Amino acid sequence: MRTVKEISALTGISVRTLHYYDEIGLLRPTEKSEAGYRLYDEKALETLQQILFFREFDIPLKEIKAVMENPALERNQILRMQRKMLAAKKARMERLIASIDDILKGENKMDFAVFSRTEMEEMFQAMLEHMPEDMKAYSIKEFGSIEKWKAHYMEAVSREEMQKSYAKVVQWYGGKDKYLSAAKNPVSKEVADSYAKRVEAIQEKMIQKRSCPVDSLPVKELVGEYGFVMKQFSQVKEERGIMLSVALSYQNPMVKSRIDEQYGEGAAEFFAQAITAFYGGD
To answer: Is 268 exposed, middle or buried (0-12, 13-18, 19+ CB in 10 A)?
Structure first.
């Protein structure tokens, strides 16, 4: 039998996550010690391994639970897809190692640029095409012309600090191509409004749980739902970075004032703490 800490050390999965898996019935401990500690046997480890395979595909925990309770549900097909994805990851890692070797040999220079000039021009054009007409007109008036606006944009996004910020966002999306696709094909206003209503409904439910600890199961379930909605809307591969940014935004004075006015004093701080407790700060 292994303890939660031993399982965490062995798999890299946090103790908090293992506790959460137990709470939602996804991975129950084999038994508990007299002192109340969770204990796991080899079969439980095999189950955890299968869960981690499925998580590589960003399958929601509820769907993973359904698969685990019904092993005949296309599990082999998913595992074949998992193998294919791991092979692709291996190829990418080998390319990265080769690039580092080139840098060490002096055959390549370290470059902070994430996007090429052509890609940045495409991003500007996409922004221009999808921007509301009133905002577009204001920006053109502000800069004097589209050409001057574009020149300012290109200079700003080419800066090293901006490229480093892009690098983090690209990681959230699971790759540069996926980020560029999302940037060039933003959701419609109708879809954005629909997601905004879903988020507002979740916030309404969260504020009703304000008397509960931020790490309690009722609050965590709602934060998990919040994260799932944000992941769908943002089209990111992993929502943790986005959600921690959302938590940080609640501390912005303007956002804090608006949220507290809508849900009551201290609501923004409660939302921020609940999200940070679920996803863990850096």
So the answer is: buried
pLDDT in tens, 133-164: 766 776 787 778 888 888 877 887 777 777 77
**How many Å apart are CA 135 and CA 46, to the nearest integer?**
54
pLDDT band (50, 70, 90) for residue 272: very high
66 Cβ partners below 8 Å, 6+ apart? 73
> φ and ψ at 11, to 5 degrees?
-105, -20
CA–CA gap between residue 196 and residue 192 (Å, rounded): 6
Query: CA-CA distance, 101 to 108, in Å (whole number)?
Result: 9
Q: What is the pTM of this model?
A: 0.47
The token pair at 176 is 């540069």
Contact 15, 21 (CB under 8 A): no
- Residue closest to 13 by CA, chosen among 59, 65, 55, 41: 55
Q: What's the farthest any 2 CA atoms get from each other in the chain?
A: 74
Token pair belonging to 173: 């999306």
> Distance between CA 257 and CA 267 in Å, rounded?
10
**Residue 88: helix, strand or coil by DSSP?**
helix
CA distance linking residue 54 with residue 64, whole number of Å: 7
Q: Which two tokens stand for residue 42?
A: 């080899």
Name the DSSP letter for residue 281. Answer: -
The secondary element (H helix, E strand) that includes residue 111 is none
Instruction: Judge contact between 279 and 227, C-beta under 8 A.
Output: yes
DSSP assignment of 163-222 = HHHHHHHHHHHTSHHHHHHHHHSPPPHHHHHHHHHHHHHHHHHHHHTTTS-TTSHHHHHH
What DSSP character marks residue 59? Answer: -
Q: What is the pLDDT of residue 110?
A: 44
Tell me if 271 sits within 8 A of 203, measured CB to CB: yes
